[in-house]
Amino acid sequence: MPATPLTTEVLRALERIGCPVSTPDLMRWLNRDRSTPLVVDQVYRALDALRARGEVQRLKATHNKRIRYWTISGASDGCRCGARQLGAS
Fold first, then answer.
1. Tens of pLDDT along 22-69?
2. What is the number of other CB atoms lying within 10 angstroms of the CB of residue 64?
3. Strand ranges (DSSP E) for 1-89?
4. Which one of 5, 18, 22, 27 is at 20 to 30 Å from 41 when CA atoms are compared?
């Protein structure tokens, strides 16, 4: 699956942020300078496509099992936000 402009932008944003981030928080970060804001479904689909390609991984918060975070695959766990890797998620 080829990269789209949005998947490329999402991947670059995750690299810049450098810490696991939730889908809504990533959407807000991406919308900072946009004239036409993204909706959460667009960001989630881009993240899911990146996960299918193995470029990002989904994490689960230890304090709330319903919250999911996203990070670059293979990124070191230098952040202390309470997220942990979910096996093969």
1. 999 999 999 998 999 999 999 999 999 999 999 999 998 878 778 889
2. 9
3. 56-61, 68-72, 83-85
4. 18
CATH for 51: 1.10.10.10
Nearest to 2 by CA among 51, 69, 49: 49
Residue-range definition of the domain harbouring residue 72: 5-85
- CA–CA gap between residue 10 and residue 4 (Å, rounded): 10
Query: Is the Cα dihedral 29, 9, 53, 80 positive or negative?
Result: negative
Cα 83 to Cα 49: distance, rounded to the nearest angstrom: 21
Output the pTM of the full model: 0.81
Q: Which residues pair with 85 in a beta bridge?
A: 59
How many domains, in total, are found in the chain? 1
